[in-house]
Amino acid sequence: MIVILTALDLEYQAVRRHLTDPQVHRHTAGTRFEVGRLANGSHRVALGLVGKGNHPSAVITERAIAEFSPSALLFVGVAGSLWPGVDLGDVVVATHVYAYHGGTSEDDGLKARPRAWEIAHEIDQIARHLHRIETWTRHLPAGAAVPAVLFGPIAAGEVVQDSSISAHAQWVRHTYNDALAIEMESAGVAQATHHNRSLPMAVVRGISDRADGTKTSTDGLNWQPKAAANAAAFAVALAQELAAEHENHPASKAREANGMTDNMKNIARDNARVGVQAGHIHGNVTVGHQPAPQAADPAAQLTELRDRLARAHKAQVVDEDTFTAAEGEIAVAAESLSESTKEGRNKALIALKKLRGLLADVAELAAHVSAIIAAIRGVL
């Protein structure tokens, strides 16, 4: 299965037009996807809407990956052009995604702290091949002009850029000078897929405005739906190629012929246990009951958290006020745990829940706090 995600409803509709018999698939948390097949009926696609911004896009992307275990993920929609040579309606396929809002503010200006994700070589090669043979154009709306397809970096931040002379626009131009387009969601998608290393990901954007103060007029000329349709056409062709590549990969076929695949899944119910399920095994193998893992030590985890918090503060990832408040909650939790009583553990849990709220914007630290909470609950 391929997952295709979009940020806007018009982008969603542009992709949905290429699906046959889409059916609602409801995630347990309430997110609604639609699952259908590409127009030729051979490949299944899950389509989802992430909304605006990098933070929600990361959450929904991770949710889609966990729900569908896709063979590839595409993020499709519109973007603003950053260069005169990138015209309205053109399709930009990302070679890199820049999270351009990382930086440190100093007396002499804003210093960039770049964060970038590079698109996998295989998916980049497939996209370039599609561009060369031009078969993707058959997915364009009837009578539509064939747009140019460009390959280059895309910058993703948290603001709608509609100026070429503002301080923000100049900073992006000077710092991320090779970016062809700018938008607001790809960094979140790239971050989520980065944590799923084997998952190929591509970002396909149609140019709907020039990010230069003329957005209102270009939107009024319906460039958003035109650009979305162009991006969807290329993305659907890319999805078909990726699905075919996954199905026809020679190495995979050879393993399947011998009853072996890269991915294996067991579902054990009631008192059933899985011993070994494997392909080729080299070396000695022992099968038996493994000793139960030792419970994590909450006190040691708190010490590690304090060190990580200090490093994050030094790197200016955590501001001064948050750092001070977080240090206070860590101290309360550590002191309460040292009482070795149920009441003390309960006090520690309350302090840690407050701490998790304080650090919600720093995903790694918030996850560490959640792990400590789980460890404490395990000994209650």
Task: Describe this entry's structure for a reader.
This is 5'-methylthioadenosine/S-adenosylhomocysteine nucleosidase. It comes from Nonomuraea spiralis. Residues 2-238 form the Nucleoside phosphorylase domain. The chain is an alpha/beta fold and 380 residues long. It folds into two domains: 2-250, Nucleoside phosphorylase domain (Rossmann fold); 298-379. Helix content is 43%, strand content 20%. The chain has twelve helices and twelve strands. It has helices at 9-16, 54-68, 121-133, 167-175, 186-194, 215-220, 223-248, 250-257, 298-314, 320-337, 342-358, 363-379, and strands at 2-6, 19-26, 32-38, 44-49, 72-81, 91-99, 103-106, 109-112, 116-118, 149-156, 181-183, 201-209. The strands form two sheets. It has a five-stranded mixed β-barrel, surrounded by four helices. A two-stranded antiparallel ribbon has the order 7-8. Helix 10 packs antiparallel against helix 11 (342-358) and helix 11 packs antiparallel against helix 12 (363-379).
